[in-house]
Each structure stands twice: as structure tokens, then as C-alpha cells.
Amino acid sequence: GIQVEQSPPDLILQEGANSTLRCNFSDSVNNLQWFHQNPWGQLINLFYIPSGTKQNGRLSATTVATERYSLLYISSSQTTDSGVYFCAVLPIGQNFVFGPGTRLSVLP
Amino acid sequence: KAGVTQTPRYLIKTRGQQVTLSCSPISGHRSVSWYQQTPGQGLQFLFEYFSETQRNKGNFPGRFSGRQFSNSRSEMNVSTLELGDSALYLCASSPPSWTGPYEQYFGPGTRLTVT
Fold it and tell me: For A43, which residue in chain B has the nearest alpha carbon?
């Protein structure tokens, strides 16, 4: 089956710093989503981004489907950005497969 | 629009018992997927229902089952609970699509503890 890798696995930042999270996948996908899981376990939609670039406030994402990767950019990080970030890909004819996540800690 | 709701939010059961979890999707969504999240295995797909039919199934034993009702609400059942079934169970709904789930929206989850 498809392999989904995320890097880095852990990231510690000072408030105000910028960061880039990466998601690599091993096969063609129809769709890709980024989620933020808060400390209570809720998965919050960040981006639905099968290709191209999207921006939402301090967050932006880019997916290059032909090269099988996606990037999530967080600028001017805040303590509320802490949590685990997941990418999930949808292989053709299958269901969503999640990566292992990047655990982000933003220190005040 | 109201989001995805899951009940109950927390549950404690004993080994050997069975449990039923419920998920109400976003209004108008017809696809419901279930996932199990554990620290060791991460987020794993259980099954997906669309228009009351199971469309896709993950690699879980037959003790895990589900169903979907005509109003798109879904339930999952785990029989003969084992300690390893302790997990956060997440439900996601997607807008209607005959070719598969698209953008998924998740509920808050049900945290199941098996003792």
C-alpha cells in the first residue's frame, strides 16, 4: 500500500518563529488534506489541497502532486499552534491514509 | 451548519463486553468513515459507509462492524472487547460522491478505555 512520511517527527519553536512541515507519499493520490489535532483529540481541517498552493492567515500549504509531496508553512507561530499536524492522502480507489504526524510545541 | 457529532465522548468498558459508538454527519453529507487512533499505530482506517452500504474496509478483525442508517447517521460496534481496543475512535463525514470520500470533516471522537 501507499507509504506516507512526515518530517520532522518533532519540532520545538519559540513563539514568533516560522516552520515548514513536509509530507511525502509513495504513489499517486486523488486528494490530500492537512489537519491539526488539538490536545483534546479533535482533528481540525487546515487545508484540502490535492495540488497547488493555498493560504489561510498565517498558514499556507503547497502540494506538488507530480513529485509526491506537500508542504505546510506556519508563520509567526503562536502557542495555540501546538499539537500534532497530520497529512492524509487519498490513493486512487482507496480510502484516506494518514501519515504519522509532526508534533509541534511552541514555547512562549 | 452543525459539525460532526459523536456520542458518547468517553466510555469505560470491561474486557469481553461489547460497545456501540454513534456518529451523526454534517447535514447533507452521505459518506461516513471511522478511524481508530492509538499511540502505537497512529490513525488507522476502519471502514467507510455511503448510502447505507459499506464501501471500503480496513484491516481490522470481524469484531469491528458498522452500519449506516437512511439519515446517514452511522454506528460502529466492537464485540468481545480486548485491552488493545482502548483508543480514540474518530468519525469523519464527506460530501456526497459516488467515487469515494473527498474532503473529510472529523467529529470530536469517542475515547474508549477497556479495563
Answer: B106
